[in-house]
UniProtKB/TrEMBL annotation:
Pfam families: ABC_membrane, ABC_tran. Signal peptide: none annotated. The lineage of its organism: Bacteria, Bacillati, Bacillota, Bacilli, Lactobacillales. InterPro entries: AAA+_ATPase, ABC1_TM_dom, ABC1_TM_sf, ABC_transporter-like_ATP-bd, ABC_transporter-like_CS, P-loop_NTPase, Type_1_exporter. This is ABC transporter ATP-binding permease protein. SMART domains: AAA.
Amino acid sequence: MKFILPYLKKYKKDIVWACLTISLAAIASLWQPKLLQQVVQAIADDKMGQISSLGVELIVIALVGLVAGALNTMFAARIAMGVAADIRLNEYQKIQQFSYGNIEQFSAGNLVVRLTNDVQQVQNMVMAIFQTVLRIPIIFIGALVLALMTLPNLWWVILVMVILVIAISAGVFKPMGKFFGKIQGLIDKTNNLAKENLQGARVVKSFNQSEQEAKRFNVAADSLNTINIKIGYLFGLLMPAFMLVGQLAIAVSVWYVGSHVVADPKMLGGLTSFVNYLMQIMIAIVNGGFMMTFAARAFVSVGRIEEVMQTQPDLTFKKDAPAVKLAGSVAFKQVSFTYPGDSQEVLHDISFSVDPGEMIGIVGATGSGKSTVAQLIARLFDPSKGSVEVGGVDLRDVNEQSLRQAVAYVQQRAMLFSGTIADNLRQGKRDAKLADMRKAGSIAQAAEFVEKYPDSYEHQVEERSANFSGGQKQRLSIARGVIGQPAILILDDSTSALDAQSEKRVQAALATDLPRTTKFIIAEKISSVIKADRIFVMADGHLVAEGSHHALLKTSPVYQEIYNTQKAQEVDVDD
Ligand SMILES: Nc1ncnc2c1ncn2[C@@H]1O[C@H](COP(=O)(O)OP(=O)(O)OP(=O)(O)O)[C@@H](O)[C@H]1O
């Protein structure tokens, strides 16, 4: 609750209105039995003249209750949806501040559930507070007092009924609350399985894994089903048990009134409202039980959202760092690195320095640390030991905007966002004009297919860029990388899906059009880096050699081995 209170402040007026309308609706439903009692009494006393005015009163009260109830739903919905939207926005903004490491720590799927499903649970709870919870004490106390005032001799019927209803509620709602808690986790699991399966639909189909996947999904869905069935059983028990208690209370009341009505004829009218109040008391207790299980589920979600909000980004940029135009030099000073949450160091004591405009190739076996080096230059992580400098500035002291303008990192897995091609290119240069896009498209060899579309750069990119081939996606992400003419461009295996001819054309265009840009070309194939000024050779997280292709062939056994293996595989090494 402490977490939600600040969010409620904004909706003070709606809260006042919600409280007023819910009170009015509750009072109306307490009033109705009294009027009914008077109607019955009028019939018993043969005072038919009173019936029509009582009828009008009944209709007015019912209408007041109806309108108040409808207005209350409107105010409660406004508060609940407003609070949920504010929490969602704050949580989203918080996630935006997260480092890559923070996001990996939670996992992207988990964060999505915390942003959607968990916020929905909080929204449901806020709605319930202003629609139901406030009504419970008014109805409970009001109906109790009015029932006692109506037939005071039957106080013991009320007491026994309340004790029985509370006992049943405690017995049923406690396990139900536990089951609801488990449901949240199981929904996460089935969602994740379905998401993974659908995203990997091609792999599932090509490896004929549909049956296997269906079995995996069935196991999770069965657990969810089992819990839902258990909840169903509890509900199945709950309603008849309450009904039994209610009917017994009514039967006892009728029997009691029946045996005393001759002595006190007014008891007959009282019986109708007494029975009604008994039901209202029972429903108030049952609703209280429901609200408690509901709240238990919502509190789990509040905890999960709070966890996100309280997580400190493990990588922040100095707010007072001056914005400068960073030069294209890069220096690693005794850099070692361990991924957050891992214990194994993946880069060991790496030092090098690169001058502006140099073209650096990075080669090495898979898992040798090439991409990790790239991620440290782009400051997706900070080194565990040592320092990384760009343009002579330690990245821990750099201005974020300056770094993002200076370094363009085209990642191994091309990732485009839904929207248009132009929207994606503008991520690399906010105010990019058509001419900039054409230039970038031509460097990345993307113009040849983009400009064939009738809508050219306004062509739509579907969700997960499903309407582009792997090579097209790579070309577009290279175009996004070069469009801002960065001081440093990192191509992390970004041409792996391009044919040899296109790759050569990209490299030639980079050399002519971005001559002053420092380029890091990470590649599996030596042919991709053969023209680099220097090639860095990585092995098991160490920088084991550096030099030109010819020099390395003479001096580096690791490089020779890579070269010979690729040559043996008849990879076209254009020597
Ligand atoms: N996000 C991560 N969390 C934990 N460990 C990671 C992460 N990314 C990479 N690693 C580990 O760090 C080491 C270096 O990985 P890196 O991706 O830098 O290698 P690479 O040389 O680029 O490989 P490849 O050529 O296959 O892309 C590997 O052992 C890898 O398992």
